[in-house]
Write a structure and sequence with these properties.
By secondary structure, the protein is mainly alpha-helical. It has a domain of 84 residues: Serine Threonine Protein Phosphatase 5, Tetratricopeptide repeat. It is 70% helix and 0% strand. The protein has 17 helices and no strands. It is elongated. About 13% of the residues have low confidence.
């Protein structure tokens, strides 16, 4: 059935805005001194301080628009003008990570922490970046430090839970993800991730409850419907499985796995022709999907199956 562990790993690359658009208004940077601090009589205030603040806000506004290229350009200017700004390095690192450039992102997160060791958001972002590079031990260390610094931050518990799950410690991963969902119950992605870890432990009823909450909170999130549908499939609740998987296919028609599992549910319901149609759709999207080839082999006469495999 579905690789819930694989789902959790793939979702690690879909970094959410852990910056929480911080400092969008009235941000304080660290340039070696607080730019909001009154300058001394002997040393005039840095001529570039106000400019850096404006550029940083431009970068944050670009993030609100989901314009990563503009945000990156702004934050690159910030770190050039203010190389000791932890917020600048953290924000640039976040954009780099969102663009798939994990190693440069790690460098900026570490620089941010060099200037501000208790910067919990930088620890969280660094942990995410280390997960992306498969440095799970490093991610664990950063996740634990983030939880120590910010025990009521849902994202800190989430990133630690994710690292624990990759290490195979599903029990403690469940505890951390459950705590994350408790702290921020309105976040559908937390319920989805907790459900995935529960499903890995064959705790299907508990997993279904989390995926149901995910669907309730974000009915247009295809992953929630897909995962709930697969759990229903495992529980032999075929009508419910087909309903959820059809919803997932409608929301994300380009997902081959969704069509594959929908085909299986329809096959179990005795809807052979519709099942064949979904399996063919899965193979069109992902021709090397072995499971779909195998299912078609059961459903089609040999000649037709060979034609479908071409």
């Amino acid at each position: 059935m579905i690789d819930f562990a694989g789902h959790a790993k793939s979702s690690a690359s879909r970094v959410r805005l852990t910056l929480v658009l911080m400092c969008l208004a009235g941000c304080t940077f660290i340039f070696g001194q607080d730019v909001n601090q009154a300058p001394s009589a002997a040393k005039p205030k840095s001529a570039g301080a106000g400019q850096v603040q404006r550029i940083y806000r431009q970068g944050m506004a670009a993030l609100e628009r989901r314009d990563l290229a503009a945000a990156r350009a702004a934050f690159e200017k910030v770190v050039r003008l203010a190389p000791k700004s932890p917020e600048g390095h953290n924000s640039l690192g976040w954009v780099l990570l969102a663009q798939g450039e994990a190693q440069p992102a790690i460098s900026h997160f570490r620089t941010a922490l060099q200037f501000k060791p208790d910067f919990e958001q930088a620890h969280i972002n660094l942990a995410n970046a280390l997960v992306a590079t498969k440095d799970i031990d490093g991610a664990m260390a950063e996740g634990r430090e983030a939880v120590r610094l910010a025990p009521k931050d849902s994202e800190a518990h989430r990133v630690l839970g994710r690292a624990l799950s990759f290490q195979g410690d599903l029990q403690n991963a469940t505890s951390e993800l459950h705590r994350a969902a408790e702290l921020e119950p309105g976040r559908a992605d937390l319920h989805d991730e907790l459900g995935s870890v529960l499903a890995q432990q064959s705790r299907l009823d508990d997993a279904a409850a989390e995926f149901q909450e995910c669907v309730r909170l974000e009915p247009n999130l295809a992953a929630c419907h897909l995962h709930l549908g697969v759990v229903y499939l495992q529980q032999k609740s075929m009508d419910e499985a087909a309903s959820q998987l059809q919803a997932a296919a409608g929301l994300a028609p380009e997902n081959a796995q969704t069509h594959f599992y929908l085909g299986k549910a329809l096959e179990e319901k005795g809807e052979r022709e519709s099942a064949i149609e979904e399996l063919r759709a899965a193979l069109k999207l992902q021709p090397n999907l072995v499971e779909a080839h195998n299912e078609l082999g059961f459903l089609l006469p040999t000649e037709q199956w060979l034609h479908s495999a071409e």
